[in-house]
Amino acid sequence: MRIEQTWSPIRNPQEPLHGKAASGQGPSFVEELKAAVHRTNELQNQAEKAMIDGALRGAKNIHETMIALQEAEIGLKMLVRFRDKALEAYQEIMRMQF
């Protein structure tokens, strides 16, 4: 059974920054977002390939196919939730009155 981390762990804002992040050279928000979208796309492609292999060669490895499908679904759900939260934050900022 493969267990891969789809998203990087969230850093505690109370902890001091080290290395590249401390100097401001760490990955930016946009880079992290692009990486998350890329990882989700890879999971979707792996799931699609597993389904095609299962359809062409029969149900020899249905367990691995189902795991790939679940990983892809979880990755997509997380990305959609992230989008929803970003939209909520944007709308909240737009409602602010200065």
Residues in helix, %: 55-70%
Describe the main β-sheet briefly: none
First-residue to last-residue Cα separation:
53 Å
Radius of gyration: 18 Å
Q: Low-confidence segments, ≥5 residues, pLDDT <50?
A: none
Structural class: mainly alpha
Oligomer: single chain
Range of strand content: under 5%
InterPro entries: FliE
Main location: other
Region (Disordered): 1-25
GO molecular function, one term: cytoskeletal motor activity
Folded structure, characterized:
- The chain is mainly α.
- Among the domains are: about 30-60; about 60-95.
- The chain is built from 3 helices and no strands.
- It is elongated and about 65 Å long.
- The N and C termini lie far apart (about 55 Å).
- The mean pLDDT is about 80.
SSE topology sketch:
Elements: H1 19-22, H2 29-57, H3 62-95
Helix pairs in contact: 2-3
InterPro entries: FliE
Biased composition (Polar residues): 1-11
Region (Disordered): 1-25
Features:
68% helix, 98 residues, mainly alpha, 3 helices
Summarize the structure.
This is Flagellar hook-basal body complex protein FliE. With 98 residues, the protein is an all-alpha fold.
